[in-house]
Amino acid sequence: MSLYAKLRAREAAGRPVRVALIGAGKFGSMYLAQVPRTPGVHLAAIADLSPANARCNLERVGWEAERAHAASLEEAIARGNTWVTDDWEAVVRDERIDVVVECTGHPIAAVDHCLLAFSHGKHVVNVTVEADAFCGPLLAREAAQAGVVYSLAYGDQPALICDLVDWARTCGFPVVAAGRGHKWLPHFSASTPETVWGYYGLTPEQAERGGLNPKMFNSFLDGSKPSIESAAVANATGLGVPSDGLQYPPASIADIPYVTRPISEGGVLERKGMVEVVSCLEPDGRVIPYDIRMGVWVTVEGETKYIQNCFEEYNAHTDPSGRYFTLYKRWHLIGLEVGMSVASVALRGEATGTPTEWVADVVATAKRDLRVGEILDGEGGYTVWGKLLPVARSLELGAVPLGLAHDVKLKRNVAAGAVVTWADVEINTGTRAYELRKRLEAEHGQTQAVAL
Known about the structure:
Layout: H1 3-12, E1 17-22, H2 26-34, E2 41-47, H3 51-60, H4 73-79, E3 83-85, H5 88-93, E4 99-102, H6 107-119, E5 123-126, H7 129-146, E6 150-152, H8 157-170, E7 175-182, H9 196-200, H10 204-209, H11 214-221, H12 224-237, H13 256-259, E8 274-279, E9 296-301, H14 305-313, E10 324-329, H15 339-348, E11 360-366, E12 375-377, E13 384-390, H16 391-397, E14 406-410, E15 425-426, H17 432-451
Parallel strand pairs: 1-2, 1-4, 2-3, 4-5, 5-6, 7-8
Antiparallel strand pairs: 7-9, 9-10, 11-13, 12-14, 14-15
Helix pairs in contact: 1-15, 2-3, 6-7, 7-12, 7-17, 8-12
């Protein structure tokens, strides 16, 4: 039975999937715009640090005021409307909530939200992929031990890429490479919230109209978010990671099967089976026609002459050898698609992407020369950006993951372009996020020792 049919059945039975949203910013607002149109789902609660801002966003997306008029969760459930509160713990602890959508964008808080939700029997759809990037495998394990599902968010590019990889492998195709598109030039890595809109292609007026956060959008532009999302894909699929970070080869959609081949065959990959991000800009800044900037893709291999002939017979666009074929989805609708994850975890008990191993990490890298006493401001800010590295390389460097490089004081100078290490910072070691990260590092070190 399709997810839609299952949702209709839940609606007919008067047993909607009850959802709580934590964080009603831009991504959360996009989900809120769709919930009233989704059968069999009741958004029972919205938890946000600023209920007033949450209500403003509800008005922005077209909600009627009465829909969020409940004075308590009990009233919301009884009347079928929504409770807006700043008490996320009360929401997560309530046994009547089935699914929590973590949408704060704050990785340290997201870990707390996820862990409490698991302990109270809630499935979690984690939009805050920054948290997944530095401790996702342990979050997935904690969820499994609690008998619930931990999932990446459909509509965000990692889950869509995982879906394409799953398609390929289920059909019997070896995955050569998978990833997303991006608008990238090397100097963007130094971008700050003050320069983001000019580089991004929006006016300040457009950004204000959309309620867009310059720091969040700068995290996309400066390479942090592509690295974070690529790490999530690698950890969910087992695909490899470039040894010195993403390369961002420029390519049109037609060129993707050309560039996402091994170096030995004319492409850019160190080997088959890797994540990568394709740029929509030539090195001189020219825009590439028919680009994949807002989309996702997977390149697969036709291993036999018969399969290659099938590619040719059905006009599948391949590289010149006829061996490599790319399937792509040119657009993603972000929060408008999160309902797929909610329905999948609640009705099928299946994640739309979840980490299964730790192969990729995103490390905090200095945007400029940083001095003792400066405070790191995390992804999208003025001080650091995120570079994708293999886990072994990250651990060798003693790197601070980007997701933990928030409000952290430097105790040593760090040169522009250098990776920030644990020895460089004074960090709060009392958070659950830090605890999980250090557990993951310790376990990985033990695994490596056994392998040796």
